[in-house]
Amino acid sequence: MSFDMKVYNNLKRKKTPFKTLEEGKVKFYSCGPTTYDFLHVGNARALVVGDLMHRVFQALGYDVTYVRNFTDVDDKIIARANERGIDALVHSAQYVEECKTDMDALNMLPATHTPKVSETMDEIIEMVETLIRKGAAYEESGEVFYNVPGFKDYGKLSKKKLEDLEMGKRVGVDEKKHHPADFVLWKPAKDGEPSWESPWGRGRPGWHIECSAMSKKFLGDTFDLHHGGVDLMFPHHENEIAQSEAANGKEYCNHWCHNEFLNFGSTKMSKSLGNVVTIRDFCEKYSGVVLRQILTSVHYRSKMEWTEEVIERAINDSERLHLFIKNISIANQTAAQSDSQEMVKVVSDLLENVKSEVSNDFNITGAMGRLFSFIRDVNREYLTGKKQLSLLECEAVEKLLAFFKLSTGLVYDDFAGTLNILKSAKKALNAGDSTISDEEVEQLLVERKDARTNKNWGKADEIRDRFKELGITVKDNPDGSTSWSY
Ligand code: AMP
Ligand code: ZN
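The joint structure predicted for all components is written out below.
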């Protein structure tokens, strides 16, 4: 490679050179979603960051093997499936498909391998057996635990100390565990849960072991880069390291990168907090083009706030970009028959700078900033008709855009279609602003109260749906009053 890739490696808590095991090849694993429901835009951040890393490696010419799993066996999946009265694996398979639809809407490139837990059971069981054989795990009546104090490097990623974990976990310790920090590798089956035969009886795996088994299956004992949301660093990733290094006797992964959270009004977006915007709902209203632009507008290691201004800015940025692509396409058709190369040098220097931005810890935002200032310059000098681009110059610009297309996923060849999508998004955003005033909300609340008093449930439901559509939460207080917020 002609440039030096660097990543912020959380193992070292600093930016380090990205040295791969094999020259020019990257083995990359990212923890994928748990498929129990539609994903929210916070999950989308993790997915898009993984995709950006994948794209940057490809654009820089690496040969990438990218593994992103689906967690299709899990407590939340089982609980949802039981509510619906269907098989847990049928439920999760449906949401794997929904997730794929969302990934397409977000213009994500396919990963090389997308394993599911339910399809990796042999490898999981084999790894648990190895851990028991090596004394790194133990069985207690059908349940298998990892022996954390036996792994001397425990805490090397999260920088947590075993003594501190011991203090924190004293209360409510599982009786079967030998140490409070020990964690489950295999648990016995309960009625109504999916289960598999194992040397410890029918059961299913704990959460952490799946990523150790899947990465080994497709990337080998040691690989180059592991990514996930920052919440996964502890305990999930710490436990992956402990399991894999004890089982394989080798270093697990050389570089660890974690994306920061997408916050919704200063709190993390999560299903349990009820402040969720699903990818599907957002894309139906504003499109995946806009969501991807939003999620790419902040460096992956910075926290991100979800606000209406962010949506508006993303629409405007994408519009500016696609108007430029449109203008270049027109300039290409009417290019001057001159052999002017003035811009060629500017563009090739810019491309070098852009490559060095993205190889500097995936600084897509830095690269986009350079592109936007270039667009401003070209618009001013050329596209207003002052000067005309030559064919050679147009070619150079198109090469630059091709790099952006691959490395960011923000550039769409169909500029006309994309501009239409953005126009609709703008309309939806403005409609959201103007459809309701505070007085109108109050009026609807009165109507809702009347409908409820008169047991007019149809009307009450209609008003509830309208509030939902507007993103308004209504709270009925114990004293009979009602409050509402966006
Ligand atoms: P889960 O389905 O909860 O296992 O999450 C899938 C991925 O989404 C993980 O990498 C999480 O760290 C990530 N994630 C969940 N919520 C957010 C959020 N609000 N912002 C960014 N990433 C998130
Ligand atoms: Zn994982």
